[in-house]
Amino acid sequence: MNVYLIGMIIAMVIFLIIGFVVSKKVQSAEDFYVAGRQAPVILIAGSLVASYSSTGMFMGDAGTCYDGGFSSLMILSGMLAAGYIFGSIFFGRYLRRSKALTMPEFFGQRFDSKAVRTLSAITAIITMTVYLLSVMQGIGTLMEVVTGVDYKICIIVAMVVFTLISVTSGSRGVLITDTLMAAVFTIALIIGVAFIAHGTGGWYDTIHHLAANTDTSALLSWAGKAGALYDTGAQNVTWGVIYGISWMSVCMVGPWQASRYQMAKSESVVVKSAYWSAIGVFLLQFLSGIGAVFVNRVFPDMPDSTHVLIWASMNLMPKILGIILLTGILAAGISSATTFQSLIGSMVANDVVKAFDSKGLDKNAMDKKAINIGRITMIAAAVVVTLVALGNPPAIFVIMYLGGAMIASSWMPVAVASVFSKRVTKTGAFAGMLAGFVTNFALKLISHFAGWSLPVWLDPVFVGIIVNIIALIIGSACTKVTEQEVLERNKMFIIPESEKDPKEIKKTMVAAKIGCLVGAVAFIVCLVLWIIPYLNGLNM
Amino acid sequence: MEIAIAIFIGVWLSAFFFFFYFRIKKEYKEVLKKQGEDQKGE
User: Fold this and answer.
1) ipTM of the complex model
2) Distance from CA of A217 to the nearest CA of B (A)
3) Which of the residues B7, B17, B37 would you substitute to probe the A interface, choosing the one with the greatest number of A C-beta atoms within 10 Å?
4) Is A213 inside a domain boundary?
5) Cα(A361)–Cα(A466) distance, rounded to whole angstroms?
6) Is residue A258 part of a domain?
7) How far is CA A396 from CA A240, A291, A307, A399, in A?
8) What pLDDT is stored for residue A371 in this prediction?
9) How many residue pairs from chains A and B have C-beta atoms closer than 8 A?
10) CA end-to-end distance (rounded Å), chain A
């Protein structure tokens, strides 16, 4: 039994214990699904960061950076971070005010439509199941590479662990374990990347060396290395912008992101947690990406670039730190998996079953039934995804991006319109969501099986967003806004009395002022830690 | 061109944060103004 396996087992046991302890406090559906709506900034921000960061980032994105897509990933990361700000202020607050238990319930209320509610639940469930698959593959690959245990056994063990956490403790436990996991992998990554830089010859020396060498100078250039994503700089930048919009949509309105705001103690918690998440996610993407690029100096031509940070953890840093970082990456995967799983369970229970089947039950009975259905669904989803993960070869990066893209094309235009548009109707919302989802999914499948190589500007996510907007406009133009829809929209903008405490307002305003520095921080980080040393290296 | 990317990231994020700051400042200013008027009335 190697030390990495021991470290991973200890971490999983700790998370299980926490999940079990928290489960004792779950008393109602509100506790189970939205943590009783009492979560403070640290738990909301921790969960936002942990739900975003998964094996997809530490393996898929890191591999892409190692191969030469660093600049495109930085464009994407900078753009998506803004999604937290937009999402909290222009969506998250209203979501929280609606008192909906899930986001499909919010859409159902806003458009006074069971059909919209059910469709949004189904699209979200499919998307999160797909994303859960990629996370499971990532976890399985990570554990197999690090511990030597068979991939299939690793998948089953991971599935049991995250299912137990989600099923027993619900969202409160998921928030706490998410935050702990975010703390572990953030601290481990910061220290770990410093050691990677040391192991490759020093931060600035490594960048100078990579820049000066013709084989590696493209790795940190604006154009990236041909073939890492696309062949030309213009195509790579376009990819970064399109997927920047896609992932920004996820951070704005994605169920595994925006749903965290429903658990917040107050609207100022929503606002404050958003900007911490924005800077946190950007820095994590930057550090994991540049750390992966550095490894090229000591181990070029790695057979599977998704293993780059795993290799670095085992070869370029002290063993204890390597164990912590690898455990942190595992934790990132498990935290995302628990979030997806708890959301899948809550949406099936709340938006598919409960919406249509209350059979005259009182609230307590209905809550109990909903929690039980949620738990059964979580277990079923885990089993189905595990069976698929056991059978399919890993394709972490592609599947993860498909999951995010489906939310961008099906939900984003409708979610933005639900807040900003007085003219959008339930018919338009339904048509847009369906058209965007089907277009993206169909184009992706067809291009994969037919072997098409679509130009970057015809990426399925982009086409899906355009088709969604067209269907939204046409559907709304053909129907009239009902009185109930007008009422529901106007209700969103009424600030609750509880949010009018002058002291809380002042805290939020101070936090917002500090948040204005985030752009400057990101700019300085890029300039000092990447661009200036890179340009100096080119001149050497 | 790399510097252009850094500027783009900085400006993109800053624009959202500034917009966000002024938006909620406007909302809360109206709330605080109304509270002040209510207190004067009392």
Assistant:
1) 0.85
2) 13
3) B17
4) yes
5) 43
6) yes
7) 18, 19, 11, 6
8) 75
9) 105
10) 48
Interface check for B22 against chain A (CB to CB < 8 A): the answer is: no
**Parts of chain A with a pLDDT under 50:** none
Segment A437-457, tens digit of pLDDT: 999 988 888 887 777 777 888
Residue A198 domain-assigned (yes or no): yes
pLDDT at A31: 59
User: Which of A516, A523, A526 is closest, CB to CB, to B18?
Assistant: A516
CATH of the domain at A269: 1.20.1730.10
Model pLDDT, residue A473: 96
pLDDT digits (tens, 9 = 90+) for B7-34: 999 999 888 888 888 887 887 877 777 7
CA distance A491 to B27: 15
pLDDT at A134: 84
* Predicted local confidence at residue A326, as pLDDT: 92
Tokens of A135: 């996370």
Q: Do A512 and B20 touch (CB under 8 A)?
A: yes
Residue A136 domain flag: yes
Give which of A121, A25, A134, A140 is closest to A345, Cα–Cα.
A121
CB-based contact B31 A527, cutoff 8 Å: no
Domains held by chain A: number: 1
Predicted pLDDT of residue A393: 57
* H/E stretch holding A117: helix A114-147
What pLDDT score does A476 carry? 95
pLDDT of residue A112: 94
**Chain A positions with Cβ closer than 8 Å to B:** 71, 74-75, 77-79, 81-82, 85-86, 89, 220-223, 233, 237, 271, 275, 278, 282, 495, 500, 502, 505, 508-509, 512-513, 515-516, 518-520, 522-523, 526-527, 530-531, 534-535
In this complex, do A89 and B24 lie within 8 Å of one another by their Cβ atoms? yes
CA angle A65, A69, A73 (to 5 degrees): 80
How far, rounded to the nearest angstrom, does the alpha carbon of residue A512 sit from its chain's CA centroid?
Answer: 23
- Chain B residue numbers with beta carbons less than 8 Å from the beta carbon of A271 are 24
| Range of the structural domain that residue A154 is part of | 3-7+37-356+364-397+499-538
- B16, B23, B32: which to substitute to probe chain A, counting the most A Cβ within 10 Å? B16
Q: Which residue has the tokens 């030390």?
A: A3
Task: Provide the whole-model pTM.
Answer: 0.89
Residue contact A89–B11, C-beta within 8 A: no
